[in-house]
Amino acid sequence: MAYDPDNIFAKMLKGEIPCHKVYEDDDTLAFLDIMPRSEGHTLVIPKAQAENLFDVSPEVLAKTMAVVQKLAPQIQNAVGAEGILIQQFNGAAAGQTVFHLHFHIVPRKEGVDLKP
Ligand code: 5GP
Fold first, then answer.
1. What is the pLDDT of residues 8-23, one digit of tens each?
2. Could you tell me if the CB of 34 is within 6 A of ligand 1?
3. Domains of the chain and CATH, by start
């Protein structure tokens, strides 16, 4: 499948639809998930056009993962979570619904189930 430049995250990057921004730099954007599975559920995306993990350069991937690594503990502290789930889907069959590469940062608290 070719990258769709009008996917919802591409529209966010173009400023065509709003998002609750958590972090931004030249290469990446992080924002709150609109349907959070836990308090603080955040998505980190590269600004480069990439449909999934296999459609991104190692350089862009490294920058994106560095942001995941930096933000995750900050988000964990901010919401008082004890752990952090990092999740990433490739392809509709795997559960991907937005076809712009993204990493979920999902704070987890002991004994608290994820929302569906
Ligand atoms: P995935 O493709 O990994 O299954 O999940 C896409 C994620 O994007 C979902 O968790 C969904 O809630 C989130 N999402 C979909 N549309 C929007 C939107 O318009 N704004 C925000 N902030 N998140 C969205």
1. 999 999 999 999 999 9
2. yes
3. 1-21+35-92 (3.30.428.10)
